[in-house]
């Protein structure tokens, strides 16, 4: 990854009016409506931003949006990137480095995921307490990584303790049932087999998805406090596995979205 590319991307966004955002937000599948909360939005389409990847998934919009939520300056990724689209881990995490260079001090991440822990139900929100990387690579495994931070990034507490506590407190006050668990990230895009669900349960995962972990690794590399919430959109019960459609995943995510928006809005107020 070239530092001059990163600088050119950041300069383009600053010239568009992306002025010292405080919080970066990555929106997952079916979770795009948070952008309706943004006051005075400035929109940069990914295909206009120098060196930015393009979102190729039909239900992921491709926009970076700057504005204010709860009187805080935010920059929101409406549409993220995945390895299964043919990108590498440096592409997938490039926007996190861009938002950090723009000035964000906190990062919020959301995603849609499948339940492995059968105590989780469709539509539940799960605060990610820890994760397992099964993507087969690292976004820090490139020459020159030490220009951007410590090569051997510490991952003993990848999700910020204070923001996790704040989210749990907000959920309690707002009467939102916020579960907590371990998220495993896999390559995809195919969904899991029965045997794979059994394996993921054995290794300690509560929910599975195809994103988030690369962004969180890079946030930790940049000493950027991060918090993440999954919406449970389908159930990976190997003894009763049903085919799942992407349409259904998007629909369930949409139903859970208002609670996710309330959580993030209240968390923004506290930063």
**What's the CATH topology label?**
Rossmann fold
Could you give a short account of the major beta sheet? 5 strands, mixed, barrel
CATH class: Alpha Beta
Task: Record the strand order, biggest sheet.
Answer: 5-8-7-6-9
Tally of DSSP helical segments: 6
| SSE series | HEEEEHEEHEHEHEH
Q: How much helicity do the residues have?
A: 25-40%
> How many beta-strand segments?
9
Structure, described:
The chain is of the alpha/beta class. The chain has one domain (3-270): Rossmann fold. The protein has 6 helices and 9 strands. It has a 5-stranded mixed barrel. Strand 7, helix 4 and strand 8 (207-209) form a beta-alpha-beta unit. The longest helix has 25 residues, at 246-270. The two termini are 31 Å apart. The model has no long low-confidence stretch (mean pLDDT 94).
Quick description:
The chain is an alpha/beta fold. Helix content is 31%, strand content 25%. Strands 5-8-7-6-9 form a 5-stranded mixed beta barrel.
